[in-house]
Each structure stands twice: as structure tokens, then as C-alpha cells.
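Continuing the batch. This is chain 6 of the set; chains 1 through 5 are on the previous pages. Same settings as before, nothing changed between runs. Recording input and output for traceability.
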Amino acid sequence: MKALKLAALGVVAAGSAIAGTVTFVAPEVVAIEEPARMGGSGAWLIPLVIVAILALALSNNNSSNL
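Output for chain 6:
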């Protein structure tokens, strides 16, 4: 009888051990790649033009002596 109880306990313990994992497996993160740009970036031209226009407008010194 004692052997039967030990065998049943072993089967139950083995069944719960195989039933599932305790550790959490994180889902895989999908990486989104930015498309590569062709040639150089022209983003620096817009601020340069704005600064040049401001510099010309502020330094315009049209003083005419009439």
C-alpha cells in the first residue's frame, strides 16, 4: 500500500512538472527599420535660408539723405 501511494505521488508530481513552465517568455519585439535616404540630407538648407533672410533684413541700412 505504501508503494502504491508513493507511485501515485510520483505520477502526480511528474504530471504537474511537465504541465507547464514557470518562467515567463517575453514575446519577440518586431524591429521597424527606417528607410535609408538616398544621397545627403537637405534638411540643413531650410534653417540656413531663414537665417540668411533674417540677416539681410536686419542689416539692411537704407538711409537716404534728402
